[in-house]
Batch of 4 targets.
Target 1
Amino acid sequence: MQISPHDVLIVIDMQNDFCPGGALAVADGEAVIQPIQRIAPHFQHIILTQDWHASGHTSFASSHPGKRPFEQIELDYGPQTLWPDHCVQGSHGAEFHPALHLPQAELILRKGFRREIDSYSAFFENDRTTATGLAGYLRERGVTRVFFAGLAYDYCVGYSALDARRLGFPAFIIRDACRAIDLNGSAAKIETEFARAGVTVIDSPRFSS
């Protein structure tokens, strides 16, 4: 696959808390760093996203007495999975994994920083209407296709890709550069949504040398 100057690689939430030993570790999460580093030189545009929660965030199970991580509740904007406290602003867990080395990244987009609403997607918060500003940034930069890698495949990566399609961008997920949480079949569920929305799932060897 040929990459053009109008393509962007968006690396989703490669943070300590999502990697082994972290507060919300994704199994084998560190393994995505090598393929990300391998494909990054193909792209003139690279963006990093960073989960950036205030302490006491509404998505934390600890903010809801009697609730446990991975339970689901209803909030004003709809269903919300509750998570262990993770990626708290300024914490070690919120920092990028030290093996990720992408100094050429042109933007770090922080999301989930509003205490009262979670944000899986790089484009919208979980009310599905509050925009992060990323779509406008990409359009002003002349980006026409969006490629995604990082953590987690079935949440922040997947929601970002679906929103990219909703906004009219061709969206590609580099599968071997992602890992899934797979909570209650979430990986298979979101792949059904990928097929419906036209998200293309590829592997890193597709990139030409």
Target 2
Amino acid sequence: MTATPDPPDPARPAAGDALPLVAGRCFGDGDPLYAAYHDDEWGVPVHDEHALFERLALEAFQSGLAWITILRKRPAFRAAFAGFDPEVVARLGDDDVARLLADAAIVRNRAKIEATIANARALLALHEGGRTVDELLWSHAPDGPRERPTTWVDVPGRTAESAALARELRGLGFRFVGPTTAYAAMQACGVVDDHLATCPVVSRR
């Protein structure tokens, strides 16, 4: 997800369909899917390798698009990429790329599809070397507590840590992982928690 989340599409949902939950979220008010992602996932620590692979893949697919677009397509992405099982995705070949490019339910971008397959192979190579994505990602967590942002102006799009993470990932064969995408993944996986100080989630956690 981009460091500054996209505002919800005002055309969705229709009046009366919004979640009757907390108001005043950092983002997501007015769209049940977006609100649930904000409340239950964004900024929550993730350590499972499959879940981390999915987050990295979806952040790559999000590049240049609104995050809500990816959320709405998430079930289709999971079906298309075997639940983001890296061992299955790593075995995908040219015929599978052609199949995925014909799948209108996902984002049909050849570079992003091929990057997802390459990243699954890089993840398996990392495991063969005795390391995990979990270890790698969390090794780039900021040192010590940070002051919680009060407005989106205070939320960076990239940091020194995300630049270092992107550099290491690329050195290991991962693709579509620039510093901005790396920072979005850090936010999505809870390596950093950028919920604004006034967000109701802050008090609930």
Target 3
Amino acid sequence: MVKCKSINGNYVEIPKEKITFRPSVYAIIRHDDKFLMLSNKSNGQLFFPGGGIEIDETIEEALMREVKEEAGIEIEIVKLIHFKEQFFYYDPADEAYHMFNYFYICNPKTLSLLKDDEVKDEEAEKPRWVDIEEIKNNAANLEAAEEIFKIIF
């Protein structure tokens, strides 16, 4: 059994046979002292745009695709700043993952975000430019966010 953190913040024991390996990539995008964040449909918490890397794409391709799908903007990838390993249980679909999460600093090339009804994603919604205090009060993965902000500031 593997201890996984669920989307609701609880810890659950999952049989190792049920866990899927999932490398993922996330963008830290800053504009005018705010960061691009998305709301999580399942719990309303904030998270950085990004998601799973598909078998046929590079990390960079996955990051640009995910940001475009979830927020509608184009980005320039600057550099890798953080890595976090995670065992995660996605309650709504009864799926468990061993995740390798790569976090990249990115610059926005465009700024016009998708409207709420234009985001077509299983879990992400409401792309917004958010100040750091709101992120600290409502981040889905507060530990990772705090680690990232220590690196940035």
Target 4
Amino acid sequence: MNPQINLTQPFVPTSQTPCHNSGWKAQFACPQGRLGWVVGHVMAIKNAPMIRFGVEMLDVQPEDQVLEIGFGHGRGIQLLAQYAKRGFVAGIDISDVMVRQAARRNHEKIRSGYIELSQASVSAIPYEYARFNKVLAVNNYQFWPNAEPNLVEIQRVLDDNGLLVLCLRLKAPQTMLQMVPGYSMDEVEEIAGLVRWVGFRDVQIVRRRAGDETLCILAKR
């Protein structure tokens, strides 16, 4: 279910990790093939300000144990590792194309053991209870298979007082270039309410212009 990157051997993607949708829009949920490789680079540019915002909100310290959900192209992983210099950074993504792309970007620290990447879903995070003290998810909540149990699964791998940062893109006026839908503030409040419902505490919403209009939901386990 969760093959990890071993840079000395070919990466074998799992057939159990869901990438079921078809069409070009589905490439943003689970990039596949040559088009998916291109989409990964597009998202690296488009999401860069949002990723920096999310990492800032996570306030990563040198010895932190950090998980990124849906790491995509791997720039967030790279940035997290720059701050968690004596800690550990892990990432999960359902796309084997993104695992490969992120592994190329972060190959040195993967070899040294500071970074670990797995092909896996937020519905079944391949780590033990309380493994991390911080979890980041940037612009992929809309693709989660089932938000409530997925949030519970994140709770499982967070230690006591661990921090979740969930970053979302706000809904913008419809244009032909808007490929990824955003959320209204009412929808964001509903998401924050669900985060509280599953048991997170100290839930707050921080809004900022980060490329597009963006916000992050911060919550403590």
